[in-house]
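The data are quoted verbatim here:
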Amino acid sequence: MPFFLFDLDRATSGGAGEGDASAIIDYMKGLSPSGVELEILSLGNFDFKNPESTPTNKIDKFLNHLLSRIKAKKDCDYVHALLNCCLRLHYDLLMSENDLISKLQVLNEAS
């Protein structure tokens, strides 16, 4: 399992805290553009060892971290770039889940 997904699952177990979101955004900033895209693309993969780790749950957790950073008014431009990449790569999954659509609406209103 990639470092980012491990950190994301661990960090979101108690909710999306500001420190957790900051650590994940800092990790993402250290990656090359293709590395960022690969990490976001891997959110759509199933983890067969952990049945609770579905693509929908992973993307929801990722969106929670993005929302946390936008509400804190930190790294807004970078968060928008990550959100754009997530929308481009997972548009079909995002539009098929009402919970994710409502999360995107909250993100839109917050920014």
